[in-house]
Amino acid sequence: MKPQSTHGKPGASGIRAGLAGTSSLKSIDWPALLATAPFFMFAIVMMVMPTAALLATAFVDKQGGFTLANFAEIITPEVADAFMASAKISAVTAVLGTVLGLVLALTVGRRMTSQKVKAAVMSFCGVASHFSGIPLAFAFIATLGRLGLVTVFLRKAFGIDIYAAGFELASFSGLTLTYLFFQVPIAFTIIMPAVDRLSTQTREAAEMLGATATQYWRFVGLPILWPTILGALALLFANAFGGVATAYALTGTAVNVIPILLYAQIRGDVLHNEQLGAVLALLMVFVMTVTISLYLMLRVRSERWMK
């Protein structure tokens, strides 16, 4: 008997593929997809499309032709100095912010017994970590400016003139001090959950084996917290490197950092150079992408330690 011809009829594999396709469509959570659609649209409009526009602008000259000459301007003294200043202030505030945030987290999490005080500290850090930009700059000018509240009080009450002693708010040190106002709370909010999840059984086991407090933190506590600490460093560096509103409102152009230089190139005045602005923006995107990716990887590792 000859086998029945299957010409013109769907085979078993085709039927299975069609059923699988139908099943995959049914498995999609359409309500959740529709609910998150505005977020994805926002990300495309505000992140993907501007990045694509930057790429298109960075590789063309003013006549519209393809060129790589725009990237040569990165090594000019002005851009190089701005990059070094941004990297320096980001590194300094990231290190100081992480160290102070770690100390604060250890104090609140391991030493503080009052739940009300602990809640007050955590609430203040939650608010201060989002307090930046022009309001923060105004607050520091009103407090530590030449006619600021603290400046005038120190001069009248104790005869101390901080500006005569060399302090200047519109300078690298002043900008560093201002950045620490939100860098420390951010580090605290990142490190505090890891400190809370440190096992008391581990500490007790180390003490039973004869370990001192210093040995416990050196060989047990800090190695467990290390990924979280490094993640905080990476995130604080990215946060300071990309900040423009606080720096511009506080110092104007007195401190030459990448965000202010970028703003000067795209705002349309005599320094307007759209191609250089696109290159600087791509440089910032690259730095932010690397540091935030590093933070996310370290965060996953720290969460694995705490399980």
From TrEMBL:
- Pinpoint the ABC transmembrane type-1 domain residues: 83-297
Instruction: Please classify the protein's predominant subcellular localization into one broad category.
Output: membrane
Per UniProt, which keywords does this protein have?
A: Cell membrane, Membrane, Plasmid, Transmembrane, Transmembrane helix, Transport
Q: Does the keyword Cell membrane apply?
A: yes
GO cellular component, as recorded: plasma membrane
Instruction: Indicate whether Ribosomal protein appears among the record's keywords.
Output: no
- Database matches in InterPro entries: MetI-like, MetI-like_sf
Cell compartments where the protein resides: Cell membrane
Give a GO biological-process term. Answer: transmembrane transport
Query: Which residues span the membrane?
Result: 32-60, 89-108, 120-142, 162-195, 216-238, 244-264, 276-298
Q: How does the protein's chain sit in the membrane according to the entry?
A: Multi-pass membrane protein
Name the family. Answer: Belongs to the binding-protein-dependent transport system permease family. CysTW subfamily.
Name of protein: ABC transporter permease subunit
